[in-house]
Amino acid sequence: MSSRFTVLKARLHIADIDRGYYADHVLTLAHHPSETDERVAMRLLAFVLQASPKLAFARGLTEEDEPDLWEKDATGDTHLWVEVGLPDPKRVRKACTRAHRVLIYSYGGRAAQVWWETHRDKLEALENLTVLEVPVLVSQALAALVQKTMNLNGTIQDDQIWIADDKTSVTVALDVRKGGIHPKRT
């Protein structure tokens, strides 16, 4: 298996009316050979929903002590830790001790539901954790938007979410497992 990453470029135009956040972000993403387009799409969705000037992609897939995305301050204090997929509860518990807020964007249909039911008790006990599930039809539709070069618009208004390129618009519904769609920033 090749260890070469594919470099993806994304220009995100974000209008988060609910938070009053309007910005353009030019991103470079490393697409790991073992990573699916669906997982890349979940990282992009998480970026759109949590966008801020300090939000950055980390090396979550290849580095055990880093999330998929994070937001740190000038002192190195981690304010936000974002995981996509179905992380091990031990990893989540560790993240909750390292960051003010931890978000999980789970996806995968039945696998995500089983993961939640299996780990629910452990995860519900973590006060600074939010768990959101992306329905399988949504994650697959978002995966179809992943290209080597992307120009995407993300709009959030009244808890309604749309991600679109110049041909397709995907309405994003999130199932809240723990917390809320837009948890308060600390």
- Taken as a percent bin, the fraction of beta residues is 35-45%
Question: What is the name of the CATH class?
Answer: Alpha Beta
CATH architecture name:
Roll
Largest sheet: 6 strands, mixed
What do you see in this structure?
By secondary structure, the protein is an alpha/beta fold. It has one domain (about 5-180): Restriction endonuclease-like alpha-beta roll domain (Restriction endonuclease-like alpha-beta roll fold), CATH 3.10.640.10. It contains four helices and eleven strands. It has a six-stranded mixed beta sheet, with helices on both faces. Helix 1 packs across helix 4.
Nutshell version of this structure?
The protein has helices at residues 37-50, 89-98, 110-124, 136-143; strands spanning 6-16, 21-31, 55-57, 69-72, 78-84, 99-107, 129-134, 149-157, 160-164, 169-172, 175-178. With 186 residues, it is of the alpha/beta class. The radius of gyration is 15 Å and the shape is globular.
Descriptive terms for the model:
single chain; 186 residues; alpha/beta; Restriction endonuclease-like alpha-beta roll fold; five-stranded mixed β-sheet; 4 helices; 39% strand
List the helices and strands and how they pair.
Blueprint: E1 6-16, E2 21-31, H1 37-50, E3 55-57, E4 69-72, E5 78-84, H2 89-98, E6 99-107, H3 110-124, E7 129-134, H4 136-143, E8 149-157, E9 160-164, E10 169-172, E11 175-178
Parallel strand pairs: 1-8, 5-6, 6-7
Antiparallel strand pairs: 1-2, 3-4, 4-5, 7-11, 8-9, 9-10
Helix pairs in contact: 1-4
